[in-house]
Amino acid sequence: MRPEADAGSWTGGWLATARHCPSPNQGPRPEGAQIDLIVLHSISLPPGVYGGPEVEQLFTNTLDWDAHPYFGQIRGMEVSAHFFIRRDGELVQFVDADARAWHAGASCWRGRDNCNDDSIGIELEGLEGESFENAQYATLGQLCRHLRERYPVAHIAGHEHIAPGRKQDPGPGFDWARLQHELGWSLAYFPETMTGANPPGG
After folding, report:
1. How do residues 14-57 score in pLDDT, each as one tens digit?
2. CB-side exposure of 149: number of CA atoms within 13 Å?
3. What distance in Å separates the CA atoms of residue 147 and residue 152, rounded to the nearest whole number?
């Protein structure tokens, strides 16, 4: 833990301000892994439907695959993210941030493959191409700051950036410049092309 960390915010890799919903879809990180990347995703189940329990059920292997026709396309999938931010800003944590969640899949960023090994995965409740809520940006900003207090975070990217051509989330509706401006972090943390972004203050 870095010396400026607020020790009261964390119990191991569990953030005190999140609602905890442990997922079995996780494992240990490789020895010596540096947790220096935050990966942003978007998800809704069924697509475009918000507020239900389905995302939590997916990440905990309790989703009823027959409850909606779309679920047949993802039947048997075992995935997780460390965090999920609902439309109202509620923060849910599924995996100890010290551990490896299953969110990135085949991926590469800053010259390294297998981004699950050394990243924190954050899912935003939303649909690719659509906008996100003010409450989500507020929670995301707080979460990113907490993560940088505990881990040597040096990069933030979208799933679309680490798996181009395979993934498109969080998509053009996510305002990267808004996040950068709110955090006040150097542009060096962010993708060179921040899709969907407007200049801070613009």
Report:
1. 999 999 999 999 999 999 999 999 999 999 999 999 999 999 99
2. 16
3. 8
Q: Alpha-carbon distance 124 to 164, whole Å?
A: 19
- Report DSSP state, residue 42: E
Domain holding 96: CATH number?
Answer: 3.40.80.10
pTM of full prediction above 0.85? yes
Instruction: Output DSSP code: residue 163.
Output: S
Q: Which domain holds residue 128?
A: 7-189
| DSSP letters for 84-135 | EE-TT--EEE-S-TTSEES---S-EETTEE-GGGGEEEEEEES-TTS---HH
Domain total in the chain:
1
123 is catalytic: yes
Q: Looking at 54, 123, 128, 160, which residue is catalytic?
A: 123
Residue 145 covered by a domain: yes
Are 105 and 147 in contact by the 8 Å Cβ rule? The answer is: no
